[in-house]
Write a structure and sequence with these properties.
The chain is an all-alpha fold. Helix content is 68%, strand content 0%. Residues 57-72 have a biased composition (Basic residues).
């Protein structure tokens, strides 16, 4: 399972930036785009997809928290 492997901050940053820059793309499309990247070449496609889903979810939560803080 991909969750057993640690992801480096550089990998997370690359994934986050791709999600932010391609918001209209699905998690599957983003995983496919990133799968050939040299930084992620040791990752399985299913593990990458799962991690992209987790990162997108985390980004959405952080965005919601930021909006809430600005309102207060």
């Amino acid at each position: 399972m991909a969750g057993n492997k640690l992801w480096s901050p550089q990998e997370d940053e690359l994934i986050d930036n791709t999600i932010i820059n391609l918001p209209h793309r699905t998690d599957i499309e983003i995983s496919a785009i990133l799968f050939g990247h040299p930084l992620l070449n040791k990752r399985t496609s299913s593990g990458l997809l799962q991690h992209v889903e987790q990162r997108r979810s985390k980004l959405k939560k952080n965005k919601t928290k930021t909006k809430t803080k600005k309102v207060i």
